[in-house]
From TrEMBL:
Keyword set, alphabetical order: Membrane, Transmembrane, Transmembrane helix
Superkingdom of the source species: Bacteria
UniProt signal peptide: none
Upper taxonomic lineage: Bacteria, Bacillati, Bacillota, Bacilli, Lactobacillales
Protein name: EamA domain-containing protein
Membrane-spanning parts: 42-59, 71-88, 108-139, 146-166, 178-198, 219-239, 245-266, 273-291
Membrane recorded as keyword: yes
UniProt keyword annotation of Transmembrane present: yes
Length: 292
């Protein structure tokens, strides 16, 4: 898969996750809903839609793949990052979340080199430039919460970037196998969150009572979130099937898209510097991917 195609898949995943982050802020930030419950409902509905699509379109047999420990570990990493981002958005502002997640771009190329021997000096320059742009334009004051956020999300993102190509190896041969891999990931993500839910008695009690929105509005929110989650997961699986640090740059600017989307959807004040950072980071990445 070419570097440009990897970046396009990463872009689709990143934009979808940016919209999901707006929904996250609404559900957990504005409405103060429980992180585990929201993740469980989202994974449950995504599983339902993915199963329907798999029955209709998927030709690859998935039963043997459901016993593959590599897919289980991959799903665990994906869900861990998702939970990490949920806590990030709960305790930090959008701009601070951008900085926290963007810091990992300084370490991911080095980590990929250590694990695969693949390294591009020009790509690492892009990593440094985009990180400096975000650190310079997004916020000016760094407190303990920001450094705590960096400490939480950076190890998760670096681990994910190193292990994802290894765990998807053997499945990236054909598109159908990658789609089957994605479906199995969704299945395991649901099981992981279900286990989390069962270990939290407070969450179990709140599963039925936590319904602050009307049934129609809540249904529309979860329908939108389900579709976005499916697009994000497919794009993410394809993007991380190759050793592309450029793809990881696009994957890690989700919060920048969230800033733009939240200004329109949640009517939050749009930070001009965030738009500049988004344009510069996306532009540098796409130019590098196109011209090599």
């Amino acid at each position: 898969m070419s570097a440009l195609l990897l970046c396009l898949m990463a872009l689709a995943s990143s934009v979808s996750r940016g919209l999901i982050s707006v929904i996250d802020r609404f559900q957990m930030g504005v409405k103060k809903q429980d992180i585990t419950i929201v993740n469980f409902k989202n994974n449950f509905y995504t599983f339902g839609l993915a199963t329907l699509l798999a029955i209709i379109f998927l030709k690859q047999d998935v039963w043997s793949m459901l016993l593959d420990y590599k897919i289980m570990l991959y799903a665990l990493l994906v869900q861990a990052v998702a939970i990490g981002y949920s806590y990030l958005f709960k305790s930090l502002t959008v701009a601070e979340s951008v900085v926290a997640s963007k810091f990992s771009d300084l370490l991911i190329p080095i980590a990929l080199f250590a694990s695969s021997g693949s390294f591009s000096a020009s790509s690492y320059v892009i990593s440094i430039l985009t990180t400096v742009i975000v650190f310079t334009l997004m916020i000016t004051k760094y407190d303990r919460n920001i450094w705590s956020g960096i400490a939480i999300i950076t190890p998760l993102l670096v681990s994910q970037s190193v292990l994802s190509p290894i765990l998807t190896s053997g499945y990236s041969v054909t598109t159908d196998r990658l789609l089957a891999f994605t479906y199995c990931t969704i299945v395991f993500r649901l099981l992981i969150v279900l286990l989390m839910l069962l270990t939290k008695k407070t969450s179990l009690r709140g599963l039925k009572s936590q319904n602050t929105e009307s049934s129609l509005k809540e249904g529309l929110i979860y329908l939108t979130r389900t579709i976005l989650t499916l697009v994000a997961q497919i794009g993410f699986t394809f993007a991380t099937s190759g050793h592309s640090s450029l793809a990881w740059i696009l994957l890690n600017i989700t919060s920048l898209y969230g800033v733009v989307f939240s200004s329109f959807i949640l009517k939050e004040k749009l930070n001009t510097k965030a738009i500049v950072a988004l344009v510069l980071v996306s532009g540098l990445t796409v130019i590098k991917a196109y011209f090599g």
